[in-house]
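User: Here's a chain of 112 residues. Predict its fold as tokens.
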Amino acid sequence: VQLQASGGGLVQPGGSLRLSCVASGSTVSFNAMTWYRQAPGKQRELVAAISSDGNTYYVDSVKGRFTISRDNAKNTVYLQMNSLKPEDTAVYYCNRVPGVSWGQGTLVTVSS
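Assistant: Prediction complete.
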């Protein structure tokens, strides 16, 4: 399976972005899916996860601001990011559980 993340960009603090992750080559309907991010000079960290039946997990720093969702008919996972902060600046990656090769990710820059 190949995973392609998109939807990143430059946004002002307090703004919103919606990231998409499209899976190709195989269905991911039965897999938990994850969003990770890697800020400059930092390790990649798990941001959010969603199980095959819709249960979700969020790292404390994004709770109440980010929402992960999935559309199995489209083989796609989303990350809605609201109230963005400069510390959310990072390259965002998606993956499945169990993991596959990382895609290119999508850059999110939060700056005024």
